[in-house]
């Protein structure tokens, strides 16, 4: 074994002065910070039984059906009471015993819809799988739908359009396509809010149910390229399809009737010819130039020429007749005028026939 050699330039023997001096150990400890009692934050305690009892988690057994408020191709909607809180909701029961893969797809879609939070979109709270039926708990809209309403007042129609477009902008930015915009899916409540309903699940049902089954729904509000896949090189833009459906709905409100030459409940062949082969409907000459142009921007046969929802919010028909919520008037529109527009809109809803005067 070779002896350990001293380092170069060093000495094997220490000097007397260094041998008498005690070796100093390095202090490797760090000082702890001073504790400020005024800034101390206690750890949270587990929830007490009293606090837990106030949260009232949703349970299907806690819901009591009050009455049926509507039915359509996708299912039946009931007004329900949540007994623990006394709150009113809408419960949509989706028809059919779906296959497992379809049920899982619907469940995934509804999980996404739970995160949707916009004042112009009906809120989805929960979902239940009860006795083989999928049931969706939704926000209750006490004014019902705008189906069959005749709204000839352009200012009121602009306010309605602004709110629907605001909801569509929100959905489209989250990459959610409605695919079923029509008057019966536009709801109103006593707070003067117009909201889009019945989105998401209708898309899945349309993909999974037999297309020959008449219960799937009407094609009356579908865009030409969605009905006839030979149009637009077989490409379907769902966002542009929503804009076409909105334009048909708004023009129907103004005219008080379905805007095509056939009835919306007509046979499939007649509707297809009217929508896909005839020229798109237009607003009558008696309407303002702004409204006529607004409808034209929605009902362009080529999807790429239709304005987006965000761009339509900047259209003169909207800007000159409405005031954005919480903002200043962008045109010669006062807050009183906006309230008068909503009052006019509410007059067309039977549930608020006596309440419209409250907004004047």
Automatic annotation (TrEMBL):
Family: Belongs to the protein kinase superfamily. STE Ser/Thr protein kinase family. MAP kinase kinase subfamily.
SUPFAM superfamilies, alphabetized: Protein kinase-like (PK-like)
PROSITE patterns reported for this sequence: PROTEIN_KINASE_ATP (PS00107), PROTEIN_KINASE_DOM (PS50011), PROTEIN_KINASE_ST (PS00108)
PANTHER family per the UniProt record, alphabetical: MITOGEN-ACTIVATED KINASE KINASE KINASE (PTHR24361), MITOGEN-ACTIVATED PROTEIN KINASE KINASE 5 (PTHR24361:SF762)
UniProt cross-references to CDD domains, sorted A to Z: PKc_MAPKK_plant_like
Binding of ATP, residues: 92
GO annotation, cellular component aspect: cytoplasm
Any one Gene Ontology molecular-function term assigned to this protein's record: protein serine/threonine kinase activity
GO biological process, one term: response to other organism
Organism whose genome encodes this protein: Carnegiea gigantea
Compositional bias annotation for Low complexity: 10-20, 28-52
Any Pfam family: Pkinase
Enzyme Commission identifier(s): 2.7.12.2
InterPro entries in UniProt: Kinase-like_dom_sf (IPR011009), Prot_kinase_dom (IPR000719), Protein_kinase_ATP_BS (IPR017441), Ser/Thr_kinase_AS (IPR008271), Ser_Thr_kinase (IPR053235)
Domain Protein kinase residues, every copy: 63-318
Catalytic activities: L-threonyl-[protein] + ATP = O-phospho-L-threonyl-[protein] + ADP + H(+); L-tyrosyl-[protein] + ATP = O-phospho-L-tyrosyl-[protein] + ADP + H(+); L-seryl-[protein] + ATP = O-phospho-L-seryl-[protein] + ADP + H(+)
Record keywords: ATP-binding, Kinase, Nucleotide-binding, Phosphoprotein, Serine/threonine-protein kinase, Transferase
Stretch list, region Disordered: 1-56
Protein name as it appears in the record: mitogen-activated protein kinase kinase
């Amino acid at each position: 074994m070779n002896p350990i050699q001293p380092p170069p330039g060093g000495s094997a023997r220490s000097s007397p002065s260094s041998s008498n001096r005690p070796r100093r150990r390095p202090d490797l400890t760090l000082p702890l910070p001073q504790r400020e009692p005024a800034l101390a934050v206690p750890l949270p305690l587990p929830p007490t039984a009293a606090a837990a009892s106030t949260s009232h988690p949703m349970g299907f057994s806690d819901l009591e059906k009050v009455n049926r408020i509507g039915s359509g191709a996708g299912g039946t909607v009931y007004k329900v009471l949540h007994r623990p809180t006394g709150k009113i909701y809408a419960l949509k029961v989706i028809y059919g015993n779906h296959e497992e893969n379809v049920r899982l797809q619907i469940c995934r879609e509804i999980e996404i819809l739970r995160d949707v939070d916009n004042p112009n979109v009906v809120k989805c709270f929960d979902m239940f799988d009860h006795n083989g039926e999928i049931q969706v708990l939704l926000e209750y809209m006490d004014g019902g739908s705008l189906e069959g309403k005749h709204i000839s007042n352009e200012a009121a129609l602009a306010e309605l359009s602004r709110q629907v477009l605001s909801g569509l902008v929100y959905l489209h930015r989250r990459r959610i396509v409605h695919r079923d915009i029509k008057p019966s899916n536009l709801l109103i409540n006593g707070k003067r809010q117009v909201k889009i309903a019945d989105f998401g699940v209708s898309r899945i049902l349309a993909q999974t149910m037999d297309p020959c089954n008449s219960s799937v729904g009407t094609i009356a509000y579908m865009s030409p390229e969605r009905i006839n896949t030979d149009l637009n090189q077989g490409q379907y833009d769902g966002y542009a399809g929503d804009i076409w459906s909105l334009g048909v709905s708004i023009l129907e409100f103004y005219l008080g009737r379905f805007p095509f030459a056939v009835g919306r409940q007509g046979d499939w062949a007649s509707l297809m010819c009217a929508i896909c082969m005839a020229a798109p409907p237009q607003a009558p000459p008696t309407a303002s130039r702004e409204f006529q142009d607004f409808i034209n921007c929605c009902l362009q046969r080529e999807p790429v020429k239709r304005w987006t929802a965000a761009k339509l919010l900047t259209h003169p028909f909207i800007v000159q007749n409405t005031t954005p919520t919480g903002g200043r008037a962008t045109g010669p529109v006062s807050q009183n005028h906006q309230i008068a527009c909503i009052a006019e809109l509410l007059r067309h809803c039977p549930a608020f026939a006596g309440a419209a005067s409250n907004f004047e």
